[in-house]
DNA sequence: AGCCTTTTGAG
DNA sequence: TCAAAAGGC
């Protein structure tokens, strides 16, 4: 019987996978394929941490498919060329996939869909990644939302989808399997092994995603509202990389939350679960914004910021390097940057704080931070990363106003009071008493650990400079709206 | 989802 | 005198 191709991309799971369900519903044999074509994601080629995750996730998916009586076929090259080749080799007449939403991938998929249809191939695409696809939500005048709360209200009014297809017991195999690449030959893993920290922390793949969810449901979600702010405690879901690669989907999370809500979980539990669902909403909002404003990975949504007086690369290179390597001399910031480097992930509150320091105190353009996060995060996601950086820089939709500057000393005292997080990631400061831990430069000279750098910025002075620059920019924009600044 | 300074008002 | 509230960036 004529098989169908199931083209897997950011949907590396078997449960709640509409494209897989559709493929099974045809009653024909299914050939699952993953195509490696990183250049098609230009200019946002997958970063090193992301490639590490992809390698292990594909391994896991391949095992799961094998256990279900199927296989994962790997091919490298242009996606269209690979698909045509596979259609030719297998005699398949239909391709099914789940949609992606990054600008470059939308273009590619559109091109491929048209080319396949031209050749008489049946093509079908589904939604696995989102509760609401970006073109299905708009305000009364038909415009995309630019503010989160009304956006999310409109989503909730539609009803959050929680319909989840059951896990297939087996997947019908074709009479003949096409040959597959050997995953190792794609060289997704780093050549020098800096990845032990990642391997220790993460279990990529669908099973790992469900372990992470179970842990969170049992230990984090009921205290999420306050627990998520404490970087020294595992109070967040840590699902972001699993979500990015589609090892688990938002509908599954909504369903799990609704099950919890039906049990008696008390007021704190209930508001905590609601807070978590709201975070899923921010993820949806990020996709909404990226789809409707595809220039935002590179350009600020608020055009006034095109003329912001950022420092120049030759002036900030040393500060940028110090920030990247966790050597700014500001403990909470260095702790976060080192957590990122060692585990490919950073606690959300610390992301806001490290980003604020880069953009506001160091005067470095947010795009530099976005690029570094892109390369080092295992959860690097163009939509979420763009929203996060523009939020911090104050130039995005519903962003934090520019004048909101985080003070990493105060934030440390407030959210890492006992210093568990800082001491874990900045061992030079292990023995510094709590009262000096967040600002070692205020300690008596005899207590300051010589191995730890002096702070690279004066937090108070740089804050003033940043606010003054913002006031001036506003003034210029008022005088010459949309125009250039002298 | 902030910080800093000034003002207010109870004691 | 000091904590809380308010106001500006």
UniProtKB/TrEMBL annotation:
GO aspect biological process, one term: response to light stimulus
EC number: 4.1.99.3
Family annotation (PROSITE patterns): DNA_PHOTOLYASES_1_1, PHR_CRY_ALPHA_BETA
Keywords associated with the record: Chromophore, FAD, Flavoprotein, Lyase
Positions with a binding annotation for FAD: 224, 236-240, 276, 379-381
Positions bearing the site annotation: Electron transfer via tryptophanyl radical: 310, 366, 389
Catalyzed reactions per annotation: cyclobutadipyrimidine (in DNA) = 2 pyrimidine residues (in DNA)
Enzyme class: lyase
UniProt-listed InterPro entries: Crypto/Photolyase_FAD-like_sf, Crypto/Photolyase_N_sf, Cryptochr/Photolyase_FAD-bd, Cryptochrome/DNA_photolyase_1, DNA_photolyase_1_CS_C, DNA_photolyase_N, Rossmann-like_a/b/a_fold
Cofactor(s), by name: FAD; (6R)-5,10-methylene-5,6,7,8-tetrahydrofolate
Family annotation (Gene3D superfamilies): 1.25.40.80, DNA Cyclobutane Dipyrimidine Photolyase, subunit A, domain 3, HUPs
Co-factor note (free text): Binds 1 FAD per subunit.
Domain (Photolyase/cryptochrome alpha/beta): residue spans on this chain: 2-131
Gene Ontology terms, MF aspect: deoxyribodipyrimidine photo-lyase activity; DNA binding; FAD binding
Family: Belongs to the DNA photolyase family. Belongs to the DNA photolyase class-1 family.
Function statement: Involved in repair of UV radiation-induced DNA damage. Catalyzes the light-dependent monomerization (300-600 nm) of cyclobutyl pyrimidine dimers (in cis-syn configuration), which are formed between adjacent bases on the same DNA strand upon exposure to ultraviolet radiation.
Descriptive protein name: Deoxyribodipyrimidine photo-lyase
């Amino acid at each position: 019987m004529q098989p169908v191709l199931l083209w897997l991309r950011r949907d590396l799971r078997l449960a709640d996978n509409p494209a897989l369900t559709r493929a099974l519903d045809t009653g024909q044999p299914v050939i699952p394929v993953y195509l490696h074509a990183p250049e098609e994601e230009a200019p946002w080629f997958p970063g090193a941490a992301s490639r590490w995750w992809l390698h292990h996730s594909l391994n896991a998916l391949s095992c799961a498919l094998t256990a279900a009586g199927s296989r994962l076929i790997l091919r490298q090259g242009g996606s269209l060329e690979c698909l045509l080749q596979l259609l030719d080799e297998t005699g398949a007449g239909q391709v099914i996939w789940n949609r992606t939403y990054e600008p470059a991938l939308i273009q590619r998929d559109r091109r491929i869909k048209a080319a396949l249809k031209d050749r008489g191939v049946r093509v079908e695409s589904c939604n696995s990644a989102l509760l609401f696809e970006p073109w299905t939500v708009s305000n009364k005048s038909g415009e995309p939302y630019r503010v989160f709360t009304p956006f999310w209200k409109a989503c909730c009014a539609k009803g959050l989808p929680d319909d989840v297809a059951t896990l297939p017991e087996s997947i019908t195999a074709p009479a003949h399997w096409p040959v597959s690449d050997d995953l190792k030959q794609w060289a997704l893993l780093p050549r020098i092994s800096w990845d032990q920290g990642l391997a220790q922390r993460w279990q990529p793949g669908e099973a790992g995603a469900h372990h992470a969810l179970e842990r969170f449901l049992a230990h984090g979600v009921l205290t999420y509202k306050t627990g998520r702010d404490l970087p020294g405690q595992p109070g967040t879901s840590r699902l972001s990389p699993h979500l990015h690669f589609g090892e688990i989907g938002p509908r599954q999370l909504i369903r799990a939350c609704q099950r919890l809500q039906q049990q008696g979980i008390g007021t704190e539990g209930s508001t905590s679960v609601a807070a978590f669902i709201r975070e899923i909403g921010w993820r949806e909002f990020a996709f909404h914004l990226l789809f409707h404003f595809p220039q935002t990975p590179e350009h600020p949504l608020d055009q006034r910021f095109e003329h912001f007086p950022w420092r120049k690369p030759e002036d900030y290179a040393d500060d940028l390097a110090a920030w990247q390597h966790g050597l700014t001399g500001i403990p909470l910031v260095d702790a976060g940057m080192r957590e990122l480097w060692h585990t490919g992930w950073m606690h959300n509150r610390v992301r806001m704080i490290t980003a604020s320091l880069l953009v506001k105190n160091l005067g470095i353009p947010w795009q530099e931070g976005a690029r570094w996060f892109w390369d080092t995060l295992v959860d690097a996601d163009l939509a979420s990363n763009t929203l996060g950086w523009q939020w911090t820089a104050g130039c995005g939709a519903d962003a934090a106003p520019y004048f909101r500057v985080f003070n990493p000393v105060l934030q440390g005292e407030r959210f890492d009071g006992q210093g568990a997080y800082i001491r874990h990631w900045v061992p030079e400061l292990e023995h510094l008493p709590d009262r000096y831990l967040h600002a070692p430069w205020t300690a008596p000279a005899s207590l300051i650990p010589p191995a730890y750098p002096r702070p690279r910025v004066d937090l108070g002075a740089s804050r003033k400079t940043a606010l003054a620059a913002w006031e001036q920019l506003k003034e210029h924009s008022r005088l010459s709206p949309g125009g250039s600044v002298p």
